[in-house]
Fold each of these.
Amino acid sequence: MGKIPFMIDLTNKNIVIVGGGKVAERRLLLLKDQCASITVISETITEEIENYIDNTSIYWYKRPFRDEDIIDTDFVIIATNDKKVNEHVINVTPKHVLLNAAHNANEGNIEFMKTVKRGLLQVGIHTGGASPTLAKKLYHDIEASFPSDYSDYVDFLYEVRQLIKLSPLENMEKHALLKEMVDCPIYDKEEQALFILQLKKKIEHPRSTK
Ligand SMILES: C[C@@]1(CC(=O)O)C2=NC(=C\c3[nH]c(c(CCC(=O)O)c3CC(=O)O)Cc3[nH]c(c(CC(=O)O)c3CCC(=O)O)/C=C3\N/C(=C\2)[C@@H](CCC(=O)O)[C@]3(C)CC(=O)O)/[C@H]1CCC(=O)O
Ligand SMILES: NC(=O)c1ccc[n+]([C@@H]2O[C@H](COP(=O)([O-])OP(=O)(O)OC[C@H]3O[C@@H](n4cnc5c(N)ncnc54)[C@H](O)[C@@H]3O)[C@@H](O)[C@H]2O)c1
C-alpha cells in the first residue's frame, strides 16, 4: 500500500527517537519546535543533538532501547544502525502509533519529505524510495527558484485572503480577486501595502468603486 502526503500538527505529541546518529539528528532538528517533547534513546548522540538536550522538552536516555520507552508515546522514530534493534522496535510499537522506520520506510506509517519552506509556503519532495539523493537534488533546484523573500509575498497573500474572506463582497468578486493575486503577483512591499489599503476601502464601500 502506498502513502499520501499530509500536513500534521504535532503540538501535543510526545516523540521518541531511537538512535542518536546523523539521521536522528536530522529528525530532531526538524521536529524540535513542533511537538510537546522529544526523547532520544541511545548510548551515543551527536554533538549537535547534545546541544539541544534541555531536560524540559528534549531528553536523552543514555542507554540502549527498552520496550517501556514507547509506553504513552505518540510517534516513534527508529534510527539505529542495529538491524535487530530496528526490527524489535517495529514489533513492539502498537499499530496505532505513528512510526517512521529510517532503515526501511515500508515498515513505518510515516515518511519524511525534503521540504522547501518560504514562510507559510511548503513544497514537499518525495521519490517513493526511488532516490533520496534525487529528492535532495530537486530540493536545491526548487530552492533556487524561490527567492528567500518569497515568504513576504506569501504572507501578503495570506493577509489579503483573510480580508477578502471576511468582506461583504459577492462570491464571484471574491474569487476574481483571489485569482488576480496569483495571476498578477505583487512582490514589491510598498505596492502590497497600497493594494491592502485600496482593498480595505473597497470592502468598506463596495459600491463606490464599481
Ligand atoms: C531527502 C531526505 C530527507 C530526510 O531524510 O530528512 C531523505 N533521505 C535523505 C538522504 C539519504 N537517505 C539515504 C542516503 C544514502 C544514499 C542512498 O541510499 O540513496 C541519503 C543521502 C544522505 O544522507 O546524504 C538512504 C536511505 N533513505 C531512506 C532509506 C530507507 C528506505 O529507503 O527504505 C535509505 C537506505 C538506508 C540504508 O539502507 O542504509 C529513506 C528515506 N529517505 C528519505 C528522505 C525518505 C524518502 C524520500 C524519497 O524517497 O524521496 C525516507 C523514506 C525518509 C524516512 O521517512 O525515513 C534526505 C536528504 C538529506 C539531506 O538533505 O541532508
Ligand atoms: N532515512 C534516511 O534518510 C536514512 C539515511 C541514511 C541512513 N539511514 C538508515 O538510518 C539508520 C541510522 O543511520 P545513521 O546514519 O543515523 O547511523 P549512525 O551510525 O550515525 O547512528 C546510529 C545510532 O544508533 C544508536 N544505537 C545503536 N544501537 C542502539 C540501541 N540498541 N538503542 C538505541 N540506540 C542505538 C547508536 O548509538 C548511534 O547513535 C541506519 O539504519 C541507516 O541504514 C536512513
Amino acid sequence: MLERIEGKHAHDPLFDKIMNKSPRFVSVPGPVIVGAGPSGLAVAACLRQKGVLSMVLERFSCIASLWQLKTYDRLRLHLPKQFCELPLMGFPGEFPTYPTRQQFIHYLESYAQKFEIGPRFNETVTHAEYDKVTGFWRVKTVGKKTEETVYRCRWLVVATGENAEAVVPEIDGMGEFGGDIKHTSFYKGGEEFKGKKVLVVGCGNSGMEVCLDLCDHSAKPSLVVRHTLHVLPREMLGKSTFGMSMWLLKWLPLRLVDRFLLAVSRLTLGDTARLGLDRPELGPLELKNLSGKTPVLDVGTLAKIKSGDIKICPGIKKLKRHTVEFIEGKTENFDAIILATGYKSNERDMFSEIDGFPTKPFPNGWKGECGLYAVGFTKRGILGASVDAKRIAEDIERCRNEEAVENVD
Ligand SMILES: Cc1cc2nc3c(=O)[nH]c(=O)nc-3n(C[C@H](O)[C@H](O)[C@H](O)COP(=O)(O)OP(=O)(O)OC[C@H]3O[C@@H](n4cnc5c(N)ncnc54)[C@H](O)[C@@H]3O)c2cc1C
Ligand SMILES: NC(=O)C1=CN([C@@H]2O[C@H](COP(=O)(O)OP(=O)(O)OC[C@H]3O[C@@H](n4cnc5c(N)ncnc54)[C@H](OP(=O)(O)O)[C@@H]3O)[C@@H](O)[C@H]2O)C=CC1
Ligand SMILES: O=C(O)C(=O)Cc1c[nH]c2ccccc12
C-alpha cells in the first residue's frame, strides 16, 4: 500500500515531508566536481586522461550554463582563442581568432563528449562538510523537485565559478520605476529596445558591449560610470592586446608593460578622460593583479561614445516612475534600465561552518585541506582555470597513488 502511495506521490515535496523521507545516499569512488562549466569540465577531462572517473554535479540542465543561458547573442571571446582553450583539446582550426558564443558552446559540448563527461543535471549543491572520523566529504544536493541526495566522496572539487550569481544593487525607488529593469544575464539582444531610451548601469565589459548592441538596434543608450576604469583596444599594432601583454611580460616588468599599454591606448583611442571615462591611478595589469578588475577591451563602444550615440552619466541617486535622478541632481526620463553590475561567486554558502576552503590567492588557492580543491577562482579567466585543472588532477592522482601504496603496506 505504502509503495503504491509513494509511486503516486513521487517527487511531491509535501508528501516527502509528511512521510519524513530521508535523502538518498550515493557513495562515489572518485572525486565529486561541483559545476559543469569550463572549469569543472577541464578537471573531469584531466582526471579521465589519468584513468580517474569523477562525478560532475550541475544545478542547471545543461553544461556551461553561464554561456548557454546567461549571455547575450553577440558575445564573442574577448581574448584570442589560444588563451581560452581547455587542457588536452584545442579549438578547431577553422574557428576565428575570437570565437563566437555559439562556437565556444559547441567546443565545450564536443569536449564533454570526447572525455565522456556526463554530469548529473538539476542537482544544486547546497551544503558540503568533511567528516573527520571517516575521512570523507558529504555533499548535499537538492534536485528539481526538492528531492535531496547526499554524495559521499574522498575528493571534492568546487567549480561553481566567479560568476555564479548576478549582482543586483539596491537602488532607491527601484520598486517605483515603471519600465523594465533587467540584469545583463537576462539580456539577449537589443531588438525589444528599438527607439527606447535605455540606461545601462555599470561599465565593465558587459555594460560597454550591451551599449554598443543597443546602438546597433536603434535604441538610445546612456551609461552610468561612477568610478574610474581602463579601456584598452582589443588589438594594438595588429596583435591582440592580451597576447601582446603576455609576451611583453616575459621581458619587461609589469609597470613598464602598463606604461606601454597606456601609451598605445592613448594613440589609438585618444584621451578617454575627455569622454567621461577617467583612468585609475594604477595601470591596467597592476590593477588586474591587485584587485582582479578586468580592463575593458573595446570592441567599438568608444567610437559610439565619441560620436554621442552613447551618453555618459554619473551614479544614480534614486529612481521615480519614469525618471532617474543622478547624484549631481540632474534628472532624465528612461524607458528601461539594464544592470550591467557584474556577478559574484556562491561557493562560500556551501561551506558555512567549515574551515579549509582555500582563501589564499593564486598560485596556492586551488588546494584546500582534506581533499578539497577549487578551480576557476583566480580571476584569470579560462586560461587560469585550465592551469588549476591540470594541477588538481595531478594532485588527486598523486594522492590516490600514495593511498594505494599505504594500503599495500
Ligand atoms: C559575459 C562573460 C564573458 C566572458 N568571456 C571570457 C573570455 O572571453 N575569456 C575568458 O578567459 N573568460 C571569460 N569570462 C570569464 C568566465 O569566468 C569564464 O569564461 C568561464 O565561464 C568560467 O568557467 P567556470 O566553469 O569557472 O564558471 P561557470 O562558467 O560560471 O560555470 C560554473 C558552473 O557551476 C554551476 N553551479 C554553480 N553553483 C552550483 C551549485 N551550487 N551546484 C551545482 N552547480 C552549480 C553553474 O550552473 C555553472 O554551470 C567571461 C565571463 C562572462 C560573464
Ligand atoms: N567578451 C568577453 O570576453 C566578455 C567578458 N566579460 C567578463 O565577464 C566578467 C563580468 O563582467 P561584467 O558583467 O561587465 O561585470 P564587472 O564586475 O566586470 O563590472 C561591473 C560594473 O558595474 C559597476 N557597478 C556595480 N554596481 C554598481 C552600482 N550600484 N552603480 C553603478 N555601477 C555599478 C562596476 O563599477 P564600479 O567600479 O563602480 O564598482 C563595474 O563597472 C568580467 O570578467 C568580464 O571581463 C564580460 C563581457 C564580455
Ligand atoms: O574576461 C575576463 O574577465 C577574464 O578573466 C579574461 C582576462 C584575464 N586577464 C585579463 C587581462 C586583461 C583582459 C582580460 C583578461
Amino acid sequence: MTQTNNNMTVNPDLAMERAKCNFNVLEVTHIFDGGERNTLQRKKIEDVALNSGASKDALGEEHMSPKEKYENAVRKSCIYATMMKNELAELSGLESFGVSSPVIRRTADAFFKEVSPFLLHLGMFVPTIMGQCTPEQQSYWLPRALDMQIIGTYAQTELGHGTFIRGLETTATYDPETEEFVLHSPTLSSYKWWAGGLGKTVNYCIVVAQLYTKGECHGTHPFIVQIRDEDTHVPLPGIKVGEIGPKMGFNTADNGFLGFDHYRIPREHMLMKNAQVLKDGTYVKVARHGKLTYGTMVFVRVVLVNEVAFNLAKASTIAVRYSAIRRQSKPKPDEVEPQILDYVTQQHKLFIAIATAHALQLCSTWLWESFSAVLAQMKGGNTDTLPEFHALSSCLKAISTSDSAHLIEQCRHACGGHGYMISSGIPNLYNFVSATRTYEGDYTVLLLQTARFLVKAYEQAEAKKPLTPTVSYLAHAFSGSRATWDNSPDGIIRSFQALAAGKTAVCVTNMRKRMRAGLSQVDAWEMSTIQLVAAAEAHCRAVIADTYRKEIVRLTANSSPNVKVVMDQLTTLYLYYWALERTGDLLMFTSVSQKDLVDLQIAYEELLLKIRPNAVGLVDAFDLRDELLHSTLGSYDGRVYERLMEEALKSPMNKEPVSDAYSKYLRPMMKGKL
Ligand SMILES: CC/C=C\C/C=C\C/C=C\C/C=C\C=C\C(=O)SCCNC(=O)CCNC(=O)[C@H](O)C(C)(C)COP(=O)(O)OP(=O)(O)OC[C@H]1O[C@@H](n2cnc3c(N)ncnc32)[C@H](O)[C@@H]1OP(=O)(O)O
Ligand SMILES: Cc1cc2nc3c(=O)[nH]c(=O)nc-3n(C[C@H](O)[C@H](O)[C@H](O)COP(=O)(O)OP(=O)(O)OC[C@H]3O[C@@H](n4cnc5c(N)ncnc54)[C@H](O)[C@@H]3O)c2cc1C
C-alpha cells in the first residue's frame, strides 16, 4: 500500500498486524475499486489533488465559527473546482468539469470534513439539466453550469412537504400575454426549505412547482430559476432567500429557504424534455411515463449506495486500526493487556462493517450498470423496466443508508471514549450518513414504494404470470411448504428469499382479510405497513446477499488463493450475520431447527477468529489516504495518542492559561460576590 510518507514510524502493533496479513492487499484494493485500471487512475487523481497540501486547513474546521467554516468551505470548493477544470478533468477521463465521477467525489472529501457548498450543483443541478432539458435547453444551460459560470441547486422540498411531492404548494402559472411563468409562494408552508447551497452560494436553482396553464393544474414540474444577480450576487426582486440555520451535520452546505412573490421567468425556463407549455399556453405531455420528472432523485439514490459504502469503509478503517493499537483490560493476569481487536465482541462489531462496505460497494456498481441499461432503454422510448428499477433503487437506497449509519455508530462504540471526539473523524461520518437515510426519500417511505411493487409481483406470481428478474424467487412462494434450510451460502440466500416471499404473502393475506372485514384498500394497506416495510427490507437483504455473493465469485475467479479465501470469508460472514439477526423469521419461514441456529452461531464465532489476523490488511485494502480519513484514531501510522494530544493542544481554549470566564464568573461566585 502506497502512503504519502514512506519514512513514517508505524505503531508496533499495527506493524505486527500488517506482517501477519496473509493475502495480497493490493489485489483486494483492485476488487474494491472495480479493477486495477481504476485503482491506478484513482491514485493519480489523489496524487494531483492531495499532494499539494491544498486540502489542509491551518486551523481545524471544528474550531471555526459557522461563518468562518462556510467561507473556508467555499474557498476550498473553488480551489477544487479549479483543479477539476485544469488538471483533474483529463486525468479522470471526463470531458469537462461537472460530470462528476465517484473518484472525483471521494477525493473531494479530503477538502471537507463536512460537505462542499457545491455538492448540490454537481449532485443534482447538473444532472437535472442533463436529464430534464430538451437538447436546445441543454446546449444553453449545460456549458454554463459545467464551467461554473453559474452555480445551482435543487429546490423541491418545502417547509410543509418533502415526501409527498404531489402536495407541494409553490405555483408556476403561465401568462400567455408575456410568455412567462409567474412563480409564487402562497403560504408559509410553501417556502422552499433545505436545498443545499441555496442559503448563500448559488445564483440559480431548479425549482419544482405546480404548473398551471389555461386555468388547469398539471402537477409538479421543474423550472430553472435565477435567484441572484450574476454579478453582484444580490437576491433579485421578488425573491426571499436565506440560510436555514445550524444542523446536526451538513453545516458547510448552507442549506437554504426560498420564497417567491409573483416572480416572473421566461417560458423557456420550464425544463421541457418530458412536458411542454406552448406559447399559447397549451400543455403537451411528451413522456410515456408519468414519473420521469422524478429522474434526478432516482439518479441520486443510485449514487448514494456508493457514497455510503465509501463512508462505511472509512469508519471501519478508523475503528479497526484503532482497535489494533488500543490495549485494555487483563483477562489473563500473567499476560499483557490484549489489543481490543482480540475481543470477539469487538470483532462482532467491526467485521460486519468491513463486509457491508464490500457488499454495498459491489451492489452499487451492479445497480449503476442496471441503471445505465434502464436509461438506454428509455432513450428508445421503452419504460417497461422503470417500475422494477424504481423498486430496486428505493430499497437499496433505504437499506444501504440505514445499515451504514447504524454500522458507523457501531464503529464509534468500538472506539470507546475517543470515538466521541470530533478529531476521531467518526462523528462527522455519522452526521453525514445519518442524513442520507432521510434525504432523497425517507427510509420508510422508500421501502413502502418497494413493497407496492412486491405486492403486485406477488399477485402476478399467484396468477402464474412472468416475473421480473429481481423478484423471480416469488414464483416459489406457493409451494405450501417451508423452504428447506441449508447453511451453504446459496442455501442461506434462498432462505432470505423465502423470508421475503413469506412476509409478502403474510401482508397480502392480512390485507385481503382486512378488506373482507370491511376496510377500504387504503386502510387495509395502512394497517399492514409495518409488515410491508419488513417485507421490503427482507427483499432488499436477499438482493444484496445474492448480488454480493455472485459478484465476489465472479471478481475473484482469477485471484490468488488467499484472496479468494478471505473474500469468501467476508461474504459468508455477511450471510451468517444476517441469518443470526433474523432467527425468528427463519423459524417462521424455513425448516431451520434450534440446533441449526446454535451451530450457525458457533460457525459465525469461528469465522470471526479466522478473519481476525487479516483485519488490518482488509481495511488497509480500502486504501484510504490519511487526508480522506481526517482521523486521529485511524491514520496509517497508528500514532493515536500523539495525534489526540496534538489536536487537543490546538484547541483555542488552551491558548491562555486562565480563561476569561474565571474573572467574569468563577471568581466572583467563589468569593461570594456574584
Ligand atoms: C455527483 C454527485 C455525487 C455525490 C452525491 C452525494 C450526495 C447526494 C447529493 C445531494 C444530496 C443532498 C441533498 C438531498 C437532496 C434532496 O433530498 S432532494 C428532495 C428529494 N425528495 C424526495 O426524495 C421525495 C421522496 N418522495 C418521492 O419520491 C415520491 O413522492 C413518492 C414517495 C415515491 C410518491 O410519489 P407520488 O405520490 O407521486 O406517487 P405515488 O402515487 O405514491 O405512486 C404512483 C406510482 O408512481 C411510482 N413512482 C413513484 N416514484 C417513482 C419514480 N421515481 N420512478 C418511477 N416510478 C415512480 C410509484 O411506484 C407508483 O407506481 P404504481 O404502484 O405502479 O402506481
Ligand atoms: C441534510 C439534508 C439535505 C437536504 N437537501 C435537500 C435539497 O437539497 N433539496 C431538497 O429539495 N430537499 C432536500 N432535503 C429534504 C429531504 O429530501 C426531505 O427531508 C426528505 O425527503 C424527507 O421528507 P420530509 O422532511 O418531508 O419528511 P416527512 O415526510 O415529514 O417524514 C417524517 C416522518 O413521517 C413518515 N412518513 C411520511 N410520509 C409517510 C407515508 N406516506 N407513510 C408512512 N410514513 C410516512 C416518515 O417515514 C418519517 O418518519 C434535505 C434534507 C436533509 C436532512
Amino acid sequence: MSMSILLPTNLQQCPSPSFSPSTPLLSPSPSTAFSLVGTSRRCLRLVTCCVSSVQSSVANGSAPAAVIVERDQIRLGLPSKGRMAADSVDLLKDCQLFVKQVNPRQYVAQIPQLPNTEVWFQRPKDIVRKLLSGDLDLGIVGLDTLCEYGQENEDLIIVHEALNFGDCHLSIAIPNYGIFENINSLKELADMPQWSEERPLRVATGFTYLGPKFMEENGINHVTFSTADGALEAAPAMGIADAILDLVSSGTTLKENNLKEIEGGVVLESQAALVASRRALTDRKGALKTVHEILERLEAHLKADGQFTVVANMRGNSAQEVAERVFESTIIVRIAEQGPTISPVYCTQNGKVSIDYYAIVICVPKKALYESVKQLRAVGGSGVLVSPLTYIFDEDTPRWGQLMRNLNL
Ligand SMILES: Nc1ncnc2c1ncn2[C@@H]1O[C@H](COP(=O)(O)OP(=O)(O)OP(=O)(O)O)[C@@H](O)[C@H]1O
Ligand SMILES: O=P(O)(O)OC[C@H]1O[C@H](OP(=O)(O)OP(=O)(O)O)[C@H](O)[C@@H]1O
Ligand SMILES: [Mg+2]
C-alpha cells in the first residue's frame, strides 16, 4: 500500500518532481544559502539546486522568523534521545563542560562551567525548529537534520561542522535484483525506460524536503515521493517504492534488505554539527561569549583527538646538534608542524651541573606513532614517553574568525 498523500493545492504550483509530505506547505519563499562556517573535507556537500525554496509549515520544517524574546539564559539544545544524545553529552564532557541532568526524564539541565547557559534536551528536528523560532540559541544536530528541517534558512549558522560523531550519509538506494540488477548510477536509474508521467519512479523517504530538491537538481522529473517514519528499507520489497532515500552509516541495513547504493546517489555527507541562530548571536547578550567559549573548547579537544605527545631523551653536545640528528628522521620532518621542542636536561654530578642529554618533544598523530618512536630510537632517542594529548589550544580559533566574518562583526 502506497503512503502517497494527495498534494495540497498550493503544492501543485511546485515544479516537478512531486512529493507527498504529510504536512501542508506555506507559500514559496526565495531560496537562501546556509552559512557554513568552517571548512572540512566533510563539510556539507549539499545540492545547490535552485528550486524555489518552498518552506514547509512548522509541523515539517522551519518555523516563522525568530523573535528575540528577553531572557537571561543562553539556551543550548541537545538531542534528547537517539544516536546523537549520549555522544553530544560525552563530547561536551571531553571539553570539560559537564551537563548536569538531575534525571533522564528532566529536559532541562545546567553546565556549571557556563553559568549563563541552560541545556534543553529536544528531538534533533525540534532543535532546528526551535533555533528558527528563537526558543533555542545554539544546538547540536546532524547536518542531515539541519538541512532537512532548516531548509537553508539564513538565520541558521553552522559554527562547527565536524564534531566527529554521528557520521552517515543520505543516499539513494535501489534493489540489487530484478530490473535494477544492472543499474549502478543515478544516470542509469534516471534513463530507465520504465519511468513516465503516468508511472514515475517511486521513492520512499523521510527527507521530504531534500529528496525532491535533489531529484530536481539532477533533472529527474518523473518521480514521486512517499514518506514513512522508519524501516524504509522494506518499501521496495513490499512494492511500495522503487527506491529509497535514507541515511546510511555501516550499510548493513541496505545489505540485509537487498538494496544497493548507486554512483551519484549521495545527497549529503553528515555528521554532528554545532549550530546557532544568527539572530541570537547578534542580538542576545552573552550569546557570542558562550559560543566563543564552547568553540574554543571544542576546537582544542577535537584538534588533540588522536594526537600523542612523544618525549625522548637524546645524548648530544648541543641542542643544534641533536636537532640535526632528529631531522634525519623523515617521518618527524613530515609530521612536525612546528618543532620539535628540544630542551636541555640538567644533571648534577659531584656538585657540578652538566648537560649530557636533551629532551625532545613532538606531537604525533596516532597512525604515525609507532613509526615515529622507532625513528626517534634509531637516531639515539631513549626513555621514550608517550601520552595522549587532551587539548591543543591554538593562538586563535580558526572557526571563530570565520564566524565573525559571517556575522559581519
Ligand atoms: N545509521 C544512522 N541512521 C540514522 N541516523 C544516523 C545514523 N548514523 C548517524 N546518524 C545521525 O543520527 C541522527 C539521529 O538519528 P536517530 O535515528 O537516532 O534520530 P531520532 O531523533 O531517533 O529520529 P527518528 O526517531 O525519526 O529516527 C541522524 O539525523 C543522523 O545525523
Ligand atoms: O547503514 P546502517 O548502519 O545499517 O544504518 C542505517 C539505518 O539506520 C537508520 O535507521 P534507524 O536505526 O534509526 O531505524 P529507523 O528505521 O526506525 O529510523 C537509517 O534510517 C537506516 O535504516
Ligand atoms: Mg532513526
